[in-house]
Design brief:
single chain; mainly beta; Immunoglobulin-like; 5-stranded mixed sheet; 4-stranded antiparallel sheet; 1 helix; 21 strands; 8% helix
Length: 278
């Protein structure tokens, strides 16, 4: 009877020993959460156990690998089952995880002029994306700081005329991104209107000087009899609403202006006439 008990306990011990031996290695791996089409995705072995000697990766798209750490590029969208099988020469273990490959946005932007300032531009996002857009990055390559923002548009004033390589990057909520560079040409304009129609129709209601928005100017406007109708402060942008110093609308007719330029020898003081119509 004692002999049978001894064999029974020995068998239990052997079974426990075998079971413990099989459970010596545990498969696991990690990968970057940002998973986008055509991006290189790094897979890292995170298995535990001693003497692991082989790794078999199956990426779910027909491609495999046998190194402990590996990288893979998915060229199609969708969900893929990634499987890792490890072995120490005697025991094996495996783990599978689902990876979702997202579509990248397509970066694009539109440039609009800003009235009365030829150096100033409004940049608007025009990118294509199947999901929400998360952040935008602008580099105007004019010595100004790189700007990161969550707004889909931004106003920017360039320091001088010329052509600038404007860099734009968009990142969506999945972390997928795209970038584009466009050449933007900035001109130095100085235009004075010859007609003002202050009838509140939204067209030519103001007498505004279009300049580069960088130099400072001042203007004095006279009636045909030499009376001062308006005298501005020195500013980067100057507009007159066709009213007298008392706030009354001026009479229709011809008016004379003198524009002074501050701190820029490329511009000469400008004089001329314009007409006010209702």
């Amino acid at each position: 009877m004692r002999f049978l008990q001894t064999k029974f306990f020995t068998l239990i011990f052997f079974m426990l020993t075998v079971e413990f031996s099989v459970a010596q290695i545990f498969a696991d791996f990690t990968f970057l959460n940002i998973t986008c089409k055509a991006d290189t995705i790094s897979f890292s072995d995170n298995s535990s156990g001693a003497s692991i000697s082989s790794w078999q990766w199956d990426f779910g798209d027909g491609q495999t690998a046998t190194t402990q750490k590996t990288k893979h590029v998915y060229n199609t969208l969708g969900d893929f089952t990634v499987k890792l099988v490890i072995s120490d020469g005697t025991n094996t273990d495996s783990v599978s995880k689902i990876i979702t490959i997202h579509k990248n946005p397509v970066a694009d932007f539109i440039v609009d002029s800003i009235p009365f300032s030829s150096y100033s531009k409004r940049f608007r996002d025009n990118s294509q994306s199947d999901t929400s857009k998360f952040s935008f990055e602008w580099n105007f390559n004019d010595g100004s700081a790189i700007i990161s923002t969550d707004s889909s548009f931004i106003n920017h004033k360039f320091p001088d005329k010329g052509t600038y390589n404007v860099y734009f990057n968009i990142t969506d909520v999945n972390g997928c991104d795209d970038e584009i560079i466009k050449n933007i040409t900035v001109f130095d304009n100085f235009v004075v209107p010859n007609v003002v129609t202050p009838n509140n129709d939204g067209l030519n209601d103001l007498f505004c000087i279009t300049s580069n928005g960088q130099v400072k100017i001042s203007i004095t406007i006279y009636s045909r009899w030499g009376s001062v109708m308006y005298e501005s402060q020195t500013a980067e942008q100057v507009c007159w609403d066709a009213r007298t110093p008392d706030g009354e609308k001026v009479q229709p007719g011809t008016y004379f202006y003198v524009i002074q330029i501050e701190g820029n020898i490329e511009y000469e003081p400008k004089k001329g006439f314009f007409n006010v119509f209702y």
